[in-house]
Design a protein that fits this description.
Mean pLDDT: 78
Low-confidence stretches: 1-22, 70-74
Oligomer: single chain
Strand content: 15-25%
Strand order of the largest sheet: 3-2-4-5-1-6-7
């Protein structure tokens, strides 16, 4: 006996009407139901009953399933599904349609594909004398994503096919729903059924509203929910999941998006797209950086940019997201986090401003010292000149004490002038006013000048100083005074740190 004979409409109705609270007769043309199943449920029997009841009504029956490789069959549902499909493929009013599993990552893309398919099948049904369409759609999604995906699909597909004689069954694995989503399904106005005690039953009838409220308010559940909300509320990190369509519609965002004045519902309902809250001056740079990241085949995207809160205030954020792609390498969605770094950016701006102020102050100081060279040197040169005149000219006899004082004045003045010259040279360099007077000079002359200057220092420490050059006719183009100062500094330091008698 083949499967087509086994599951005739009469046999199915007689076998299952007595076992389940839910009756297939309760699903009129144009209606819809959602079936939530576990792996060990007789879901194939129910789907077969649903499709066979369509055959009885002269409907074109269509089973839409994600394309799954044979090696991926992991439960009885998929194995039995393939057995049923293979044996019903001979029927003229049955069609099995495989869809790309990648479509299930985006609800809008998936729904548009289904709607295009239904439009084609409706034309075929009319042309071949069918009364309408009876469609089963298998849905799968990651835990925590199934409920919004299911609701979006139901709303969009049903609202877009009101002019078609269409009856739909959505089948979803129970394992794809979180505990809280199951409670949400119970409150949902949609016709959702689940198997309990061997019978398919409306999910809304399994528990009274009072008992559902009790479960939600039980100490253990409340404690877990409170901890989870506290983590989101107190964390500066906002988690998100958005797809790659224009404007980056958000499929999920953590509740602490409220720190920017938005609610999670504002974004997941697409009242605001993520592209809407990126600062308009940053959106082009953001798209260019994202495009380059994708072009380089990188699956991680990092970017600092500005966003606008609900009151149009500016916030700096740091985004780190993972890029999910389809089989062709095209991005499908982004999952990641954003962190408010506004305070850090303000601190960085303050540091930069302080640096600019310090640089201006330093430049002003340098310019002041460079401009004061004449005012500082003129009186000091006068002091040194007059003290030297007293020592070396015949202006009258000086006693020993007077001579010592005048020599101290001259030495101290020369030392002070040397210090001032060094300071002024540094200031000129910082103020970009240091001028080099270059000329062609004989290098050996510079060495001889330096040697004569340092020779008293060499003799005082009983050192041996040798200066040699490969050729006496080497000429260089340089500032003779500055070059002599550099060589003098090097040699005098060497003398200073060489032990006596070296």
């Amino acid at each position: 006996m083949n499967l087509c004979d086994r599951y005739t409409a009469g046999n199915i109705m007689q076998e299952y009407f007595g076992k389940m609270d839910f009756s297939l007769s309760e699903v009129p043309h144009g209606g819809h139901i959602t079936l939530v199943y576990k792996n060990d449920d007789d879901v194939i029997d129910f789907v077969s009953s649903f499709l066979n009841s369509g055959s009885k009504c002269n409907d074109l029956c269509i089973w839409i399933t994600p394309e799954i490789k044979e090696c991926e069959y992991s439960n009885a549902f998929f194995e039995e599904r393939m057995a049923l499909i293979s044996q019903r493929s001979c029927s003229s009013n049955f069609d099995h349609v495989l869809v790309d599993p990648a479509l299930l990552s985006n609800a809008d893309t998936f729904c548009n594909t289904i709607l295009e398919l239904l439009e084609t099948k409706q034309k075929y049904a009319i042309a071949n004398g069918f009364n309408g369409l009876r469609v089963n759609i298998d849905l799968t999604a990651d835990k925590g994503q199934m409920l919004p995906f299911l609701r979006h699909c139901r709303e969009l597909i049903i609202s877009s096919t009101l002019d078609i004689e269409l009856t739909i069954l959505f089948t979803c694995p129970l394992e794809s729903f979180s505990s809280s989503e199951v409670f949400d399904l119970m409150d949902d106005k949609g016709n959702t059924i689940l198997k309990k005690n061997g019978m398919w039953t409306y999910l809304v009838d399994l528990l009274s509203k009072k008992y559902r409220k009790h479960l939600r308010s039980s100490p253990e559940l409340m404690k877990k929910e409170k901890k989870l909300k506290a983590i989101y509320r107190d964390s500066p990190v906002v988690a998100f999941l958005r797809n790659s369509e224009n404007g980056f519609p958000i499929d999920f965002v953590s509740d602490n998006i409220s720190q920017f004045g938005y609610s999670a519902e504002d974004l997941t309902s697409h009242k605001f797209l993520y592209g809407d809250i990126i600062h308009p001056w940053d959106i082009d740079d953001y798209l260019i950086s994202l495009s380059e990241c994708i072009k380089n085949n990188s699956n991680e995207f990092k970017k600092e940019y500005r966003i606008l809160d609900s009151e149009r205030n500016i916030h700096w954020v740091n985004e780190t997201s993972l890029i999910e792609t389809d089989n062709s390498g095209n991005p499908t969605r982004f999952q990641g986090i954003i962190v408010d770094i506004t305070d850090r950016k303000k601190a960085e701006a303050m540091v930069i401003q302080a640096k600019l102020v310090a640089e201006v102050a330093n430049k002003t100081k340098s310019e002041f010292l460079a401009n004061m060279s004449h005012e500082l040197r003129t009186p000091l040169n006068a002091v040194i000149g007059f003290s030297n005149a007293l020592i070396h000219t015949d202006v009258g006899p000086l006693n020993e004490k007077q001579t010592r004082y005048i020599n101290n004045i001259s030495k101290s003045g020369k030392h002070l002038l040397s210090l001032i010259n060094d300071i002024l040279d540094l200031s000129k360099i910082e103020a970009d006013k240091m001028e080099l007077h270059t000329e062609n000079i004989l290098f050996v002359d510079v060495l001889n000048d330096v040697e004569s200057i340092v020779s008293p220092l060499v003799q005082n420490k009983n050192l041996c100083l040798n200066m040699s050059i490969e050729s006496d006719d080497i000429h260089i183009h340089a500032d003779k005074l500055k070059l002599k100062q550099v060589l003098f500094n090097l040699v005098s330091n060497a003398i200073k740190f060489t032990p006596e008698g070296g």
